[in-house]
């Protein structure tokens, strides 16, 4: 699928190597998000999720100085409702928030691993976005902030739900969320929010993310998809429940031809060739 067919007004999509998609936030001047941007974000990732030829996705910013400034503060005006009655107004706001949450969670429900490559400032909604990704790399120049309390909000798009489970450090997470202070790439690494610091800025961290995506793309897409689904299930369930889920999942997925292909290729010392997850629709 051509990148131009998937790209939107604010987000670019390209395919830098086989089976790898590169999604770049590209709303000048600071990649701030309003309703149109997060709607497009969700739509693009849901579209990529249906592309049977993709096996890994890198997410970055095309802007040279930052990843995202977070929520477009002008968008807060869109939270006003047409209802004067408080309960009905609350229902409208709830529906808006749930739709927003779903748009940003598109990276999490994507069957392919999503590797975030961040540089410069990562503010507010940027943390929500990163929290829903599978792997997070940061450039050494990056700074982060859970900024919502400074604009009178509790973060509601995923940060508070996901970061405690990602880091396992409740005290640190609460300090950052209550104070809205900036924290460094080194602090992000020490708390377990990111897995790697890449020396440099945008070019270097994007390169590292794409290299990792290329490695993942050589693996069995059935195995990688199953690994992502089982890890997500494990996060939210007991060990016993997850083992039962894994047994059911693999009872079906172990029947894949990918197992034989992987073993044969290993013995023959040649790269494996895996089929797409689904049949590729013919070009019109």
From TrEMBL:
<dbReference type="InterPro" id="IPR045002">
    <property type="entry name" value="Ech1-like"/>
</dbReference>
<dbReference type="InterPro" id="IPR014748">
    <property type="entry name" value="Enoyl-CoA_hydra_C"/>
</dbReference>
<keyword id="KW-0443">Lipid metabolism</keyword>
<dbReference type="InterPro" id="IPR001753">
    <property type="entry name" value="Enoyl-CoA_hydra/iso"/>
</dbReference>
<comment type="similarity">
    <text>Belongs to the enoyl-CoA hydratase/isomerase family.</text>
</comment>
<dbReference type="Pfam" id="PF00378">
    <property type="entry name" value="ECH_1"/>
</dbReference>
<dbReference type="GO" id="GO:0006635">
    <property type="term" value="P:fatty acid beta-oxidation"/>
</dbReference>
<comment type="pathway">
    <text>Lipid metabolism; fatty acid beta-oxidation.</text>
</comment>
<dbReference type="GO" id="GO:0051750">
    <property type="term" value="F:delta(3,5)-delta(2,4)-dienoyl-CoA isomerase activity"/>
</dbReference>
<keyword id="KW-0413">Isomerase</keyword>
<keyword id="KW-0276">Fatty acid metabolism</keyword>
<dbReference type="InterPro" id="IPR029045">
    <property type="entry name" value="ClpP/crotonase-like_dom_sf"/>
</dbReference>
<dbReference type="GO" id="GO:0005739">
    <property type="term" value="C:mitochondrion"/>
</dbReference>
<protein>
    <recommendedName>
        <fullName>Enoyl-CoA hydratase</fullName>
    </recommendedName>
</protein>
């Amino acid at each position: 699928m051509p990148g131009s067919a998937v790209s939107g007004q604010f987000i670019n999509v390209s395919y830098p190597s086989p089976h790898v998609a590169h999604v770049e936030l590209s709303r000048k001047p600071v990649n701030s998000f309003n309703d149109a941007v997060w709607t497009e974000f969700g739509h693009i990732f849901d579209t990529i999720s249906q592309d049977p030829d993709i096996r890994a996705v890198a997410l970055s910013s095309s802007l040279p100085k930052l990843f995202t400034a977070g929520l477009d503060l002008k968008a807060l005006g869109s939270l006003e409702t047409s209802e004067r009655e408080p309960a009905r107004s609350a229902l409208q706001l709830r529906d808006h928030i749930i739709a927003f949450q779903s748009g940003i969670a598109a990276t999490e429900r994507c069957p392919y691993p999503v590797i975030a490559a961040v540089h410069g400032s990562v503010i507010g909604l940027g943390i929500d976005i990163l929290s829903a990704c599978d792997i997070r790399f940061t450039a050494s120049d990056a700074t982060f902030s859970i900024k919502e309390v400074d604009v009178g909000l509790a973060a509601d798009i995923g940060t508070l739900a996901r970061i405690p489970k990602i880091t396992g450090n409740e005290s640190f997470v609460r300090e950052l969320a209550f104070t809205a202070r900036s924290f460094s790439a080194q602090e992000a690494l020490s708390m377990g929010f990111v897995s790697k610091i890449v020396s440099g800025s945008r070019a270097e961290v994007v390169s590292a993310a794409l290299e990792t995506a290329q490695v993942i793309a050589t693996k069995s897409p059935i195995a990688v998809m199953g690994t992502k689904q089982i890890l997500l299930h494990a996060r939210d369930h007991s060990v016993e429940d997850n083992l039962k889920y894994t047994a059911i999942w693999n009872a079906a997925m172990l029947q894949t031809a990918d197992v034989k292909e992987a073993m044969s290729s290993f013995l023959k010392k040649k790269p494996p060739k895996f089929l797409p997850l689904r049949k590729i629709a013919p070009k019109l």
